[in-house]
Each structure stands twice: as structure tokens, then as C-alpha cells.
Amino acid sequence: MKATSRKVAFIGLGVMGFPMAGHLAKAGHHVTVYNRTASKARAWVERFGGRMAHTPAEAAAEAELVFACVGNDNDLRQVTLGDTGVFATMKVGTIFVDHTTASAKVERELATYAGERGIEVLDAPVSGGQSGAENGTLAIMVGGKPEVFARAEPVMACYGRAITLMGPTGAGQLTKMVNQICIAGLLQGLAEGLNFAMRAGLDVERVVSVISKGAAQSWQMENRWRAMVEGSFDFGFAVDWMRKDLSICLEEARSNGALLPVTALVDQFYAKVQKLGGGRWDTCSLIKLLTDS
Ligand code: NAP
Fold this sequence. Notes:
Elements: E1 7-11, H1 17-26, E2 30-34, H2 38-48, E3 51-52, H3 56-60, E4 65-68, H4 73-80, E5 95-98, H5 104-115, E6 120-123, E7 126-127, H6 129-135, E8 138-143, H7 146-156, E9 160-167, H8 171-199, H9 204-211, H10 219-230, H11 239-256, H12 261-275, H13 288-291
Parallel strand pairs: 1-2, 1-4, 2-3, 4-5, 5-6, 8-9
Antiparallel strand pairs: 7-8
Helix pairs in contact: 1-2, 8-10, 8-11, 8-12, 11-12
The structure holds NADP nicotinamide-adenine-dinucleotide phosphate.
NADP nicotinamide-adenine-dinucleotide phosphate binds at residues 12-17, 35-37, 40, 69-71, 75, 78-79, 100-101, 126-127, 129-130, 237, 241.
């Protein structure tokens, strides 16, 4: 057992949360987990040890740090506020770290609510996908107070790298929005380029091999070109999640005045992918709208 081991709780054992909580246990922390669907929490305890709780409040009662990785703003409110939410039992001076991709607005709302009870809050959305969570190599962008960040950072390091404090509450989520805006337009450009290459009768593997050595290179090109060409999308980061993220970006832009014409257009393309039944497909499935027309 490590000298720095802490009592922690993890709320939400989905694709991301399950392995993230696992890294905390493997590092020697005392982990109590809560998951809405209890079978996942049981499976987690069987694999990693630790304890399972029946409500978020019960999971958080003894914890110095409470982590969450759930779906959206409303899910986050459900696991934090009210009688069964984590804030009902968290003690003064403890820290709530939110890894959900959510709005900056809800993070400010939670920080105010928690602050009135002496509880600290960090918004800490992640990037790196399922493989980043499993390999413990997530990029984590954080909003909150520097002294609170300094206390939580060594624990987040169990599953993260490039853990960066971006500014006050909400700044982590705003940074994640930039990440998603950059990816949306890039994926549509990649889809158009690959579809063009196929229609032009080029050897797409050779095309990617040469242009990925030049200015067109991207993570998406290197990691997604084959799935796009083969039309196999049953993996990865779901279109439903991307639409949730883009709606957060578009809403934020309405208040800060940023123009997002391409992001808005790509969001509509994703709506079409959903209509094709592709809500759970990876975001690179945008190319299907081009190859099938
Ligand atoms: P997921 O597999 O669908 O897991 C979501 C988790 O949240 C599940 O444990 C679910 O419980 C729980 N949950 C949802 N709504 C809840 C509610 N109202 N009350 C209690 N628990 C609730 O999703 P994920 O892929 O892990 O993603 C989680 C978050 O990380 C999302 O905000 C997503 O945008 C973000 N993210 C995901 C990725 C990725 O590649 N997957 C990458 C970066 C960021 P149940 O088991 O009962 O459904």
C-alpha cells in the first residue's frame, strides 16, 4: 500500500469510468464505486477489489476525493444534488472532480452549491478516448482553484498525463469545447478527402501514407482512415456523445459571440448519421453520408 493512498469514490463506471476507477485501485487508493446499473459496480469490485455503494451519497460519505464520469449536465445534477447526491454527504474540505464532458454553466452551478457547503469542485473533462482511459494516458483539462488542483493532480495522474489547470471553474469544459470544435471540422475534411481519393480511383493507403507525412497529418487521419474507407464504425467515440458535446459548444458560442459555421454544419451531418441508425457509431462515420450518395 502506498503512503499517499487516499479514500476516494468514483461515480459512473461506463466506458471511461470503469478503467479510470480501476487505475485508482491499482495505485493503492481505497476506492468505493457507485454505478446506476449495479451489475457494473459488482463486476468492477470483483475485478479490482474495493467497495460498492448503493447511492452516490453513500459512496461519497467517507471520501477525501470524489470523482464522477457520467453522461451529460442532467446526469451530473442527479448524482450530485439532492438527498442521494454526493454533496449530501461530502465533508468540508473534500474535493469533487468531474470528468464528465458537460457545460461550463453546470460546473459553475455545482461549484457555487458545493462552495456554500465548504466542498471544493474541479471540472476536469478528458480527451484520449477508451484507449486513453484503459492505458491511463488521458489528457485532462481542469478548471478550479490552483491549491485544489495541486491536491487532486497526483491522484488524477493514475490515469492521466498532460493534466493542465486552465483557469477558474468552467475553464476545463471550455477547453474541451475547443477540442471538440477542432475535431468536428477536421473529421468532415478528412471524410471529403478520402471519399474524393476513392472516387478518383487512387490507392487510398498510398495516399494516406504520403500525405500523413506532410501538412495534412492528424491523429484522426492516422487512426481513423482505415475505418472510414472500410465503412466499419462499430467502435470508438459515439455520434450521440459528439452531438451532446457540439450542442454544448453551440450554446456557449451563442453567449460568447464566437462564430461556428462549420461546427454547426457538421452537427447537422451527425444528425443525419443518427437518422441512419448510427448514434453509437464512431464519429468518423461522417464519411457514410458521402460514400452512400
Ligand atoms: P458511458 O459508457 O455511456 O457511461 C456513462 C456512465 O454514466 C454509466 O456509468 C452510466 O450508468 C452513468 N450515468 C449516466 N446517466 C446517469 C444518471 N442520470 N445517474 C447515474 N448514473 C448515470 O459513457 P462514457 O463513454 O464512459 O462517457 C462518459 C463521459 O465521458 C461523457 O460525458 C462523455 O462525453 C465523456 N467522454 C467520453 C469519451 C469516450 O471515448 N467514450 C471520451 C472523452 C470524454 P449506467 O451504467 O447505469 O448507464
